[in-house]
Write a structure and sequence with these properties.
Structural class: alpha/beta
Order of helices and strands: HHHHEHEHEHEHEHEHEHEHEHEHEHEEH
Radius of gyration: 24 Å
Number of helices: 16
Strand order of the largest sheet: 1-2-3-4-5-6-7-8-9-10-11
Length: about 450
Amino acid sequence: MATTAGDLGSRRGQPSGTPMATAAAVMSTHLSLHKQYLQVCQESSQPENPFIAHMLEEAERADITLTKGITLKIAGNNRLVPVQKVTDEDFRMLACILSNNTFVTGLDLRYNVLTDVGAEHAAKFLQENSTLHYLNLMFNDIGTNGAELIAKALHGNETLLYLRMTGNKIDNKGGMYFASMLQINSTLEKLDLGDCDLGTQSLIAIVTVMSHNKAMKALNLNRPILYSQEEETTVHTALMMKNNACLMELHLCKHEMKNFGVERLCDALYENRSLRYLDLSCNKITRDGVKFLGELLKRNQTLEILDLSSNRIEDDGAIYLSEALALYNRTLQALAVVSNNISGKGLVALSDSMKTNMVLSYIYIWGNKFDEATCVAFSDLIENGRLKPNCTDVDPYEVDGHIYLAELSHGLKRHYYWTPSYGEVDNKDANASLAIRAVAEHL
């Protein structure tokens, strides 16, 4: 049944001439999203954003019937069409036509210029909309006040499953608002607060609350601002992993984590039966820390993806991992040891482990020290069919009778910060975590 502007206005206290009421009247005429947007802008005397208008048309062409849920991708870093970045007022107009929309289930507004005012519109939108599952606000200009509004809107929201706040400088106080939200919201399954300048206090608050959260499946806490060398945040994260039985994916990139923190985390993971994907990339883990991970892998039966990229595990660390993988572990499917100062001895050990371990299918090794033995070992794995070319980031080639390895643009999450202008957006070769774990979608 169509909703009239008067009905909507009386229910929400909106006068019939407001943009929200106009949107309801427009929707009742079953106009296209593009035409609805133009009409709302006209009624509100707000200039239309040609980029939004174009992307609404594109979305309708992609799904003419509009019978299934669609994601509107209005990313400000789109290089294929002229972009006029979405402002706070642009978002207000967009929210007008989407608040009562039933077929738009995803909204991607990354790399635009939304501020705390835009966050206020987003908060109202989340309170009124009952169909949106995915909201991407990464790398806008939302601060602490905007974070408070969005977090409080999620107290009562029962439909949003995935929120990406990546790169908005919400700071420590903004992180505290999200910690409070996680105590109340029982629907949100994925939350990305990476690069948000979280501090020690908010990080500890979030992981403490997560000890009792039974909905969250994927949590990204990359690159907080930490001043202490005591690794308190890692210790609290370890305590959380002992108690949490639902979290399947955890990103702890750039946490200044050292061997002490890895030891605490591994001790906790002996008791954990839910974690499938652990990201410890860009930390300060050395061979001594990897020794604890090797012991964990000998007994752990749930971990499927381990990302150790950009640490310093060296040959001894690679050998610890290879021993666990060759003789004990049969659940890990993907291992990334990119840029870890590993030379031929350690890399050959890892390749040998794949000869006896048939479960490990993805391995990423670029950025280490390749000697001829390494090149031959991985070339043999690929030629024999043990390692598929799309499951690694190296490609063998021969010059004057010698084997060398070239880099391929493959990895666990190469398109975390950006997506290619051409080709498949969710390319499984460049984002292998998508192929292995469904919960990693969009992350």
